Amino acid sequence: MRALQAAAGVDAGDTAWMLAATALVLLMTPALGLFYAGLVREKNTLNTFMMCVAALSVATICFALVGYSLAFDGDGSLVGGLGHVFLQGVGFEPRDGTTIPHLLFFAFQTTFCIITTALVSGAVVERMRFGPFLIFAALWSILVYSVLAHWAFGGGWLQAGGTLDFAGGIPVEMGSGFSALAAALVVGARKDYGRQALLPHNAMYVLVGAGLLWFGWFGFNGGSGFGANDASVLAFVNTLLTPAAALLVWFVLDLLRGRQVTAIGAATAIIVGCVAITPAGGFISPGWALVLGGLAALPSYAVIVWRTRTRVDETLDVLAAHGIAGLTGIVFIGVVAQMSWNGVSDGLLYGNAEQLGSQLLAVLAAPAYAFGATYALLRIIGAFTALRGPDRDEAVGMDIIHHGEEAYVRGEGAILITPEGSVEDELAAVGPGSR
Q1: Domain identity same for 425 and 332
Q2: Which of 7, 97, 204, 212 has its CA 20 to 30 A from that of 160?
Q3: Is 6 a domain residue?
Q4: Looking at the structure, do residues 374 and 247 belong to the same domain, yes or no?
Q5: Domain that holds residue 91
Q6: Both 86 and 28 in a single domain?
């Protein structure tokens, strides 16, 4: 087969880095599955991981067919055009404004859509039916993620108005966080929520998942410079510094509140730090990146503490870890962005108050759209099919009910599926919320 020649304007070094960055971001979705799976009860381990696996397929296909075009074709104010539907016009020529093939630009952006769709699942694990989730994931990736991506960095109204978002604070972080809140409210709380402790079953999964997510985030943020360039280097370094600072401050908060440093808290802190630097990675200095990590830990920690005292069963705290941390990063840009670091605009502390105004507009508009659109979407889906099964399904566990498998081999008392499809188990012995 004749080797394809690099298109004019394509840089081999930039392309090599972006191939690696794309692979790193794709790794983040199974890493998220591991992180999420450790946070739920044993009987829901596989189902939780499978929701992330589902995003690998559903979000990829939907984004390729129409979502990418809505996000990145044209410069319409609210949504892109249909010029790239079914990947029309997406080939080996460089994407406008980059030195990498358009196909590679598409692949990189697709990995963002995948993990954002998977993130939202954290709000409804342990009770949402798998079938309706697949429908939701498909529609959400097109109607919510793609629209927000267009607003932020596809030529939409926020980007045109001067809002800065380096790697997805608007569509990925605030988009997932506030969509998660809406999803939790529509689907409702788990049947045992507030009546007994619903504890993570494997803290080691959570820590390993968080570590792999941090590793992948170097591609997520470092790749958003779209080449082996200064912006990518700055974002790469800041992605090292901000989570480290968030982790240290989280240790202090844990010690002050409970005199113990928890593994779940440490893993959450890593995510909060990575999220906070996502929108700001290429726009602020390394010194300010350290400050951001410490500051971002405070509101996210507070929201987690507050949420557990309410009836809002947003199961895995996507709002706090992603929505609030992402919001913090977006606002922080407006205060400390520096021309010397980003070549775009200064922030408030460097004489440009208008930049803070642009950032504040984003933190009002994006969460409102994400929450409202997700709420409406789930209500519509729920009008045609039940979003969750009966209490008995939750008692047995989503793994057996929806997949006919379990994460761990058990001895006596294992739950079985009969040829007729019924579940046989002594539910009284199992008890609510067990395993």
Answers
A1: no
A2: 7
A3: no
A4: yes
A5: 12-384
A6: yes
Q: What is the CA radius of gyration of the chain?
A: 22
Residue 301 within any structural domain of the chain: yes
Whether residue 295 is found in the same domain as residue 359: yes
Token pair belonging to 46: 């596989």
Q: What would the DSSP string read from start to end of 82-140?
A: STTGGGTT-SSSBPTTSSSBHHHHHHHHHHHHHHHHHHHGGGTTTTB-HHHHHHHHHHH
User: pLDDT tens per residue, the chain (435 residues)?
Assistant: 333 445 668 999 999 999 999 999 999 999 999 999 999 999 999 999 999 999 999 999 999 999 999 999 988 899 999 999 999 999 999 998 899 999 999 999 999 999 999 999 999 999 999 999 999 999 999 999 999 999 999 999 999 999 999 999 999 999 999 999 999 999 999 998 877 778 899 999 999 999 999 999 999 999 999 999 999 999 999 999 999 999 999 999 999 998 999 999 999 999 999 999 999 999 999 999 999 999 999 999 999 999 989 999 999 999 999 999 999 999 999 999 998 877 778 999 999 999 999 999 999 999 999 999 999 999 999 999 999 999 999 999 999 999 999 998 765 444 544 434 444 443 444 444 445
Domain count across the chain: 2
Q: Is 176 within 8 Å of 119 (Cβ atoms)?
A: yes
Q: Which residues pair with 424 in a beta bridge?
A: 416
Q: Does residue 414 share a domain with residue 319?
A: no
**Which residues have C-beta within 8 Å of that of residue 113, sequence separation ≥ 6?**
59, 60, 63, 67, 141, 145, 146, 149
First and final C-alpha spacing in the chain: 55
Cα atoms found within 13 Å of the Cα of residue 156, Cβ hemisphere only: 25
Give residue 226's identity as a one-letter amino acid code: F
